[in-house]
Specification:
The protein is an alpha/beta fold. It has a single domain, classed as P-loop containing nucleotide triphosphate hydrolases (Rossmann fold, 3-Layer(aba) Sandwich). A five-stranded parallel β-sheet has the order 2-5-1-6-7, with helices on both faces. A two-stranded antiparallel sheet has the order 3-4.
């Protein structure tokens, strides 16, 4: 079983690329979805409330994720606090997922896990290979604005991440997602076949 990390920066198309790998037969896990589930967990929410206060909640229960995001993307110390709460739990879920995959893929398949902060947090050694999804910043910003995210909000998130050019330098494989989806899909197919050979 080959365990591969998929990363990139905000708005550059990681989810789109992950779905393409899934369509080809790879087992996939989207850590943003794992985080979404964790942020509904009562024990996690209790810790978030203790660290960030009642102001990041709608009333007694529901987390105001937009408010929390606006805090952590403006303040790296607060971002570290949230990551220390969530990341160990995310990796527990990844371990569970991989244990379940061992039998399903009989040791011969490709597992691709989307990890947004792969390089920032030094998680590369946990994976056999890594793939970086790249798009030029203006293309990413345009796509994000089309999906309803303000340019300021998008820039705030992009500035909190390692520059994409640095990630490209560290990549085993790079997928340019600046152009048409057909161009992206052709790159995904080529890389998937190389991963299967490995």
């Amino acid at each position: 079983m080959l365990i591969v990390a998929l990363t990139g920066n905000y708005g550059m198309g990681k989810t789109t690329v992950l779905e393409m790998f899934k369509d080809l037969g790879a087992a996939t896990l989207k850590t943003d979805e794992v985080v979404g589930e964790l942020l509904k967990d009562a024990a996690v929410l209790k810790t978030v409330r203790r660290e960030f206060g009642a102001g990041v909640f709608w009333g007694d229960k529901d987390l105001n994720r937009e408010k929390l995001s606006s805090i952590v993307f403006r303040d790296s110390a607060k971002r570290d606090v949230l990551e220390k709460i969530l990341h160990p739990l995310v990796f527990e879920k990844i371990e569970e997922f991989l244990k379940g995959m061992v039998n399903k893929v009989a040791g011969k398949g490709v597992v691709i896990i989307e990890i947004p902060l792969l390089f920032e947090k030094g998680y590369t050694e946990m994976f056999s290979k890594n793939i970086v999804v790249y798009a030029d910043e203006e293309t990413a910003l345009k796509r994000l604005q089309e999906s309803g995210i303000t340019r300021d909000n998008a820039m705030m998130r992009l500035n909190a991440q390692m520059p994409i050019k640095e990630k490209v330098k560290r990549a085993d494989f790079v997928i340019d997602n600046s152009g048409p989806l057909e161009h992206t899909r052709a790159q995904v197919i080529e890389i998937y076949h190389k991963l299967l050979e490995d």
